[in-house]
Amino acid sequence: FCFPQVLLLACAEDLECVPGFQQKVFYIEKPFKFTEDQLVLNLKFDDCQGNNKLNFEVSNPDFTVELDGNLVALKNVSEVGRALFVHARSEHAEDMAEIFILEANEKRGALKEILKLESSLGIPRQKRAILATPILIPENQRPPFPRLVGKVIRSEGTEGVKFRLSGKGVDQDPKGIFRINEMSGDVSVTRTLDREAIANYELEVEVVDMNGKTMDGPVRLDISVIDQNDNRPMFKEGPYVGHVMEGSATGTTVMRMAAFDADDAGTDNALLRYNILRQTPTKPSPNMFYIDPEKGDIVTVVSPALLDRETMESPKYELVIEAKDMGGMDVGLTGTATATILIDDKNDHAPEFTKKEFQATVKEGVTGVIVNLTVGDRDDPATGAWRAVYSIINGNPGQSFEIHTNPQTNEGMLSVVKPLDYEISAFHTLLIKVENEDPLIPDIAYGPSSTATVQITVEDVNEGPVFHPNPMAVTKQENIPVGSVLLTVNATDPDTLQHQTIRYSVYKDPAGWLEINPTNGTVGTTAVLDRESPFVQNNVYTALFLAIDSGNPPATGTGTLHITLEDVNDNVPSLYPTLAKVCDDAKDLRVVVLGASDKDLHPNTDPFKFELSKQSGPEKLWRINRLNNTHAQVILLQNLKKANYNIPISVTDSGKPPLTNTTELRLQVCTCKKSKMDCSASDALHISLTLILLSLLSLFCKSFA
């Protein structure tokens, strides 16, 4: 009976000789350290043909295998990782052995796992027709190719049959990597392998007769690519920027650096260790930070007092971080990245005025910024710990002043927002306080330097006189006599301490109706006030007057006068239209509807009274009918011959006294045929005798007047 091995090793009773290591997997307990020339274990390799030109290679350069198979340490070694790989090659065979290094408490459990795995695989105790032991191939092998890497054996011989290999890497993409000698069962690799591209190949091998009929199998053939340390650690997640608050306790975690290694994570080839190569700047300490070699966590190692942003040469540190594989051993490959660490500010400095008292001068009546208050703050200008907030805490009862922060300079801009009056107060004293947007840390407080006094001097200026009231208003009837007094304006000089005189003048008088006494301000008329003038809007006439003091230079004030004009009946009504046409054979003898209008206001307008002057001749030719207060209708009493007729019509308004206007309505009697009206070539003009008589009477009366 032969103790079964995990990787389907054949027992001596199965086959007389199997080329390769007689045992491929070893488990040894990790010592405190391997000492120089220490025998670790003995490896038995047999190529079944005398082991000509036998050569061993060990994955760890600190170990070697002698020709008798003894694995020994070349020097004192304390760290070797979790496994060693031994590659043996002779003139006729090649194989790989694995030595797993276990902690003391892992060994017993590992043996149990071996037996459990063997049981789960169902390895038979009887002879097997095909023996296909797993093949281990180091990556990055150099030519020549093809290279023999293993052998498949058929216990019943190979006469009359041949081996056939299939699967990914043979007849499936990537094709042609492996091939098998149909007669001998030798398995070869045809090119260099890359474990990071494909780490394992699962192939199938079977025995077929010369006609291709399967005789045995298929049996799985596992090929594993042994990792070599051919990938440097890489930092892929940059840029790496961390922040730490100034004054933080020693050991405060700033950030984590994590590198990636494409090699086998289960080997030292991907076991990374971190280290800080360089720190810039090097003050106040060349070792401000420490990096956990295994986790990559960067922490502070200086005292909180040294982590003071305001005393540092720069609040930004750059660390060159190195990640090295092989557990940080000298033979490991390295990769680097830069970690930028920013020291964040906290509000540990109160703003302070650059001086205790500021001076400002402003002219009365002027608004705007009068002085900029300067402060100093040692905190970070990009934060609320530096930005200032100003407030007036005394001396501003009338809210004449405001203060705002200049966002670029952090200065306090003190402004006058309500004009100051020299005659009321020539001096003002303000008490200003400055704070930060962010609150101070608990052990810092605002001191006396966070307040300042501003002394403001108001300069007197010659102010213009002021009308009282302004605007002024008066109501008068239109058409009052020229020279009538409307009112007396009143203006006073705000400069009460200067004792100046005031003279008046007309500034704007659109219609030219007014004058003003330059000494006493009496306003009178120089023309008739006409409510119907185009210069009057909504019954109101507006004029502007000036009051000029005797200062040097003189100052001027403007006053506005609104004159409301009351209507009088001074406009006769007008009649429209004044022309009408009618056919000589018209059946509808309603000639025209007349309307009347009046520029005056009610009650000096409608209702209007419409009248016809007396008609001459034995028969009356037309009449007028009142339709409403503003309209009447002219009606023919009979058809007339084609001619032009003038009809005198009187319109009287309702004013007291009423005004009458007589207007002639010109009536054209035309010939109408086929919807066309012909008013040309009319007969001689027929003029109303009544109108002629009225005209003669009017001339007679004027001659005796």
From TrEMBL:
InterPro entries attached to this UniProt entry: Cadherin, Cadherin-like_dom, Cadherin-like_sf, Cadherin_CS, Cadherin_pro_dom
A single cellular component GO annotation: adherens junction
Pfam families: Cadherin (PF00028), Cadherin_pro (PF08758)
Protein location: Cell membrane; Cytoplasm
Membrane topology annotation: Lipid-anchor; GPI-anchor
Chief localisation class: membrane
Lineage top rank: taxon: Eukaryota
Domain Cadherin positions: 161-235, 236-353, 354-467, 468-575, 574-685
A single MF term (Gene Ontology): beta-catenin binding
Keywords assigned by UniProt, alphabetized: Calcium, Cell adhesion, Cell membrane, Cleavage on pair of basic residues, Cytoplasm, Glycoprotein, GPI-anchor, Lipoprotein, Membrane, Metal-binding, Repeat, Signal
Subunit: By contrast to classical cadherins, homodimerization in trans is not mediated by cadherin EC1 domain strand-swapping, but instead through a homophilic adhesive interface which joins two elongated EC1-EC2 domains through a region near their Ca2+-binding sites to form a tetrahedral, X-like shape.
Function according to Swiss-Prot or TrEMBL: Cadherins are calcium-dependent cell adhesion proteins. They preferentially interact with themselves in a homophilic manner in connecting cells; cadherins may thus contribute to the sorting of heterogeneous cell types. May act as a negative regulator of neural cell growth.
Protein name per the record: Cadherin-13
Organism the protein comes from: Chaetops frenatus (Rufous rock-jumper)
The organism's taxonomic lineage, starting at the top: Eukaryota, Metazoa, Chordata, Craniata, Vertebrata
